[in-house]
Amino acid sequence: MEEQKNDTTPKVTGIGGIFFFTENPKETREWYSQNLGLETNDYGSSFESRNLHNPEEINTLQWSPFKKGSEYFSPSTKEFMINYRVQNIEGLVKNLKENGVTVLDDIATYEYGKFVHILDPEGNKLELWEQIDADPNDEKTAE
């Protein structure tokens, strides 16, 4: 297992989020909370899981309804967008460009990760996300 833990091959490692259009995001979040038990906030709901190859690592999948017509999915005209969790985002973007994939923006870095957007052959906008690892010297532990 240690070999996989140190693997830096540019690739998708999982799903980081599911985003979709709705006429009324607030009502949609409330419906899912009331009927399916999702704990929701203004951004949707987060699901946590552990990394099979590194059980100390907690991964998050973000579920978020967006107001229909939001420009966040542009230039795609689809009703959804999937966020893929990746490793080695810089290497992956380099490979994608070499393969002629449409890369929509530069890699943006935030405290919770690095992001870039691409289009697949069907015009679906995909969000690629590389989580920034927590500082190993941080005293916080997962509950």
Topology:
Blueprint: H1 2-5, E1 11-22, H2 25-36, E2 45-51, E3 54-67, E4 80-87, H3 89-98, E5 102-103, E6 108-110, E7 113-119, E8 125-130
Parallel strand pairs: 1-3, 4-8
Antiparallel strand pairs: 1-4, 2-3, 5-7, 6-7, 7-8
Characterize the structure shown:
The chain has 3 helices and 8 strands. 18% of the residues lie in helices and 41% in strands. The C terminus is likely disordered. Strands 1, 2, 3, 4, 5, 6, 7 and 8 form an 8-stranded mixed beta sheet that branches. The chain is flat. The chain has one domain: 2,3-Dihydroxybiphenyl 1,2-Dioxygenase, domain 1 (Roll). It is of the alpha+beta class and 143 residues long.
| General form | flat
Number of helices: 3
The CATH homologous superfamily is named 2,3-Dihydroxybiphenyl 1,2-Dioxygenase, domain 1
| Distance N to C terminus | 24 Å
Beta strands, count? 8
Biggest sheet descriptor = 8 strands, mixed
- Determine the strand fraction and express it as a percent band: 35-45%
Mean pLDDT score: 89
Q: Runs with pLDDT <50, length 5+? A: 135-143
**What is the CATH-assigned architecture?**
Roll
CATH first level: Alpha Beta
Rg, alpha carbons: 17 Å
Query: Which structural class do the helices and strands define?
Result: alpha+beta
Q: Determine the fraction of residues in helical runs and give it as a percent range.
A: 10-25%
Give the H and E element order.
Answer: HEHEEEHEEEE
CATH topology-level fold name: 2,3-Dihydroxybiphenyl 1,2-Dioxygenase, domain 1
Number of domains: 1
